[in-house]
Amino acid sequence: MPNADVIIIGSGIAALMTAYYLHEDNNVIIFTKSNKERSNSWLAQGGVAAAVSKEDNWRCHYEDTMIAGCHHNDEKAVKILVREGPKQIQELISKGFRFDTDERGHLQLGREGAHQFRRILHADGDATGRKLVSFLLKELINKVTIVEEEMVLELLITNGRCAGVKTKKQSGEVGCYYASATVIATGGCGSIYAFSSNASTVTGDGIALAYRAGAEVADMEFIQFHPTMLYVNGKAVGLISEAVRGEGAILVTEDGRKMMESIHPQKDLAPRDVVARTIHAEVLQGNNIYLDISMIANFSKRFPTITQLCRSYGIDIESGKLPVVPGAHFLMGGIKVDVNGQTSIPGLYAVGEAACTGVHGANRLASNSLLEGIVFSKRLAETLRNYIKENMFVETSPHTDNHFVKKITKILPTKQKIQTLMMQYVGIVRNESGLKHAKQWFEQFSIPDLLNVDLDELTTEEITIINMLITGWLITTSALKRTESRGGHYRTDYPLMDENWKGTRIMRTKEELFVNA
Ligand code: SIN
Questions:
Q1: pLDDT tens track for 252-287
Q2: How many domains does the chain have?
Q3: In a domain, 139, yes or no
Q4: CATH number, domain at 238?
Q5: Residue nearest (by alpha carbon) to ligand 1 atom 4
Q6: Phi/psi class of residue 181: alpha, beta or left (left: φ > 0; alpha: ψ in -120 to 50)?
Q7: CB 203 within 8 A of CB 30
Q8: How confident is the model at residue 2 (pLDDT cuts 50, 70, 90)?
């Protein structure tokens, strides 16, 4: 007997929404390597973008998404996102989820960078992700099995099809679980950078898992840096939502110069890549950058999570100035899927930030990621329901196509070493010599060996480092292949691309390493 109809890896919005849509007629198991509240979704402050106001419509949301994405977006995926978004928001509300409303009961809509209109729904001010995850966990209690502190280390591929997962408990015990369909919803890889807004557990595990199993990944060079992370004692310690700039806050230098004034027509609400690069350039010139919040009335009421974050680091909100730096925030690329979540391996699906439908193009529009999780998980659930009916599971044998036989021959680096290297050479601003240096550094660990290594005997920390090495190498080498600047991929040795030049999508599979071997 298989262990489940569907195995889901990850516990953020995309994972939980998929389980939510499936649980009534399917047996679902969720695996998370830490605990169910430790995800990027839990940390998401901004909210959910959807064209729900009278003045707004899906076409405007479509336009903003395409412009922010530098027209590298998959147009079909964007249309699905912006058209289905408002309906699904309505559905969530009808199921009992409460977005913030004004005193007349109308939805309160926030504004964020590169949006033409106020269209960001939020909950408890800046705790939208936390509220959504809590709501879904409550709905799913006793209805799906959530296995915590158990890391998926390998996808079981049998006769070319994904048959389930191999896992490792904290105790070191290894186990196999079988299912008709397996879904990767592990989020992106922000924490392979030294400065990041992501949960520390978000280290590219799902992408490395899929790539090791032979799945296609795409657009790995496109990393979004959020412009405003709170900066304390040389570290980026937490996100200051763009919604703060949406309420009027502005970026200033130590001497009060308005940093974005002459840089972009949308000033402080310009697309994130533009704002992040401007801060980066200022910092390189030795200037400290601050977010001036002095004009926002009742800051602590509108932004309670940020207020608490600042207080916990001894930053005085009343001073009106928050020190900020950019940090890695979102991966636009990931495991290549169609708009129904299907990867290049039968039986294997991906959704949310781990997946790449192409919806975000080269740079994600603010607050489109929770929306992506909501919209695409519903489509995925519908696809899975049909797939499971037609593909009753038969395989539960431990025999698989996997041939992970190698032993580690080189001492693995520390996580910190990888994070520092990524920040310095594969960060906000890149060039050929830096990228080549990073590529060479990664390749000293032999990527083909890492793709073939038997993980069973390794600790979860060692497996995480191997996943970081594979993911970091994929980002670096994809960045070398993209000889242009576009959105979240900026190279000083290549110009910014004209949006009319569509360019190509950089696709990767591990075959490329073994084809001539
Ligand atoms: C933010 O609140 O600034 C982040 C929201 C997002 O990345 O969509």
A1: 999 999 999 999 999 999 989 999 999 999 999 999
A2: 2
A3: no
A4: 3.90.700.10
A5: 46
A6: beta
A7: no
A8: low
- CATH classification at residue 410: 1.20.58.100
CA of 344 to the centre of ligand 1 (A): 30
Kindly state if the Cβ of 243 falls inside 6 Å of ligand 1: yes
| 316 and 408 co-located in one domain | no
- Whether residue 366 has its Cβ less than 6 Å from ligand 1: yes
**CA 238 – ligand 1 centroid, Å:** 12
**Residues 227-258: tens digit of each pLDDT:** 999 999 999 999 999 999 999 999 999 999 99
Q: Any alpha helices (H) in 2-53, and if so which ranges?
A: 13-22, 40-43
pTM of the shown model: 0.95
Q: Which among 428, 413, 515 has a CA at the least distance from the CA of 469?
A: 413
Residue 484 CA, ligand 1 centroid: distance in Å? 26
Boundary of a domain, candidates 309, 326, 343? 326
* Any atom of ligand 1 within 6 Å of the Cβ of 367: yes
Domain around 251: 229-326
Q: Which atom of ligand 1 is nearest to the CA of 228?
A: 3
Does 60 fall in a domain?
Answer: no
CA–CA separation, 451 vs 475, rounded Å? Answer: 16
* Residue matched to tokens 């915590």: 148
Q: Write down which residue in 326, 346, 378 finishes a domain.
A: 326
- Model confidence band, residue 392 (pLDDT cutoffs 50, 70, 90): low
**C-alpha to C-alpha distance for 206 and 478, rounded to whole angstroms:** 18
pLDDT above 60 (res 394): no
Distance 120 CA to ligand 1 centre (A): 10
70, part of any domain:
no
In a domain, residue 302? The reply is yes
Pocket test residue of 230, 240, 242, 306 for ligand 1, highest count of atoms within 8 A of CB: 242
Indicate the burial class of 68 (C-beta count within 10 angstroms; 0-12, 13-18, 19 or more): buried
**pLDDT higher at 396 or 143:** 143
**Catalytic site includes residue 272:** yes
